[in-house]
From TrEMBL:
Signal peptide (residue range): none
Domain YrdC-like: 14-201
InterPro entries: DHBP_synth_RibB-like_a/b_dom, Sua5-like_dom, SUA5_domain
Lineage: Bacteria, Pseudomonadati, Bacteroidota, Flavobacteriia, Flavobacteriales
Protein name: tRNA threonylcarbamoyl adenosine modification protein, Sua5/YciO/YrdC/YwlC family
One Pfam family here: Sua5_yciO_yrdC
PANTHER family: DHBP SYNTHASE RIBB-LIKE ALPHA/BETA DOMAIN-CONTAINING PROTEIN, THREONYLCARBAMOYL-AMP SYNTHASE
GO molecular function: double-stranded RNA binding
Length: 206
């Protein structure tokens, strides 16, 4: 059964965050808040945890479209090929914020990303998630959780999320009500920005 952990974004409880970090280090899968919708996450360095996320999403791991969620841009070169100055300036303007940027992946990506030529990068404006990643020392692999409701695409109430995912994940973080609008997705892999999905993030940063 998943543990429901209440953490206040204004003043994240360090002890609770360290417990979540330990769960991730041991291969756990969590549901966490962001500056957009709630998402599934695990440690990017843990292949078995990524297999769990893929199974939950009912996809083959080698065909994943997971994003990489970082606490800042310091991990960028670990997953993304060198980018030009104009692209970096866009990232600096946008992050932290409700964006996913598709960038060219390096050749020696983690095993689960080997077939990916591009990768989505997120730095959410959420103090809980960024502190978890900072203490973990690695980015999270992430995938938004969807609602089966025909009207509401994303569940915003963490208690309802916990009720639904109780037997599937290890921890659900209650960081308050989530948004029901996903991140804006922008492809920068070829240099010129291509908007793949308009979401919460403004296009004024381009």
């Amino acid at each position: 059964m998943a543990k429901l952990v209440r953490i206040y974004p204004e003043n994240p409880n360090e002890k609770e965050i360290l417990k979540i970090v330990e769960v991730l280090k041991n291969g756990g899968v969590i549901i966490y808040p962001s500056d957009t919708v709630y998402a599934l996450g695990c440690d990017i360095t843990n292949y078995k945890a990524m297999e769990r996320v893929a199974k939950i999403k009912n996809i083959k791991l080698e065909k994943n479209t997971f994003s990489i969620v970082c606490n800042d841009l310091s991990h960028l070169s670990d997953y993304v090929k060198p980018i030009d100055t104009s692209t970096f300036k866009i990232l600096k303007r946008a992050f932290p914020g409700p964006y996913t940027f598709v960038l060219p992946a390096i050749n020696n990506m983690p095993k689960a990303f080997k077939k990916r030529k591009t990768v989505g990068i997120r730095v959410p404006d959420n103090s809980i998630t960024r502190r978890i990643i900072e203490l973990l020392g690695n980015p999270l692999v992430s995938s938004s959780i969807y609602d089966e409701d025909e009207v509401i695409e994303y569940t915003t109430d963490p208690e309802l999320i916990h009720e639904k995912w109780d037997d599937i994940v290890d921890v659900v973080i209650d960081g308050g009500y989530g948004d029901n609008v996903a991140s804006t997705v922008i492809d920068l892999s070829e240099g010129e920005p291509i908007v793949l999905r308009e979401g919460k993030g403004s296009l004024d940063i381009l």
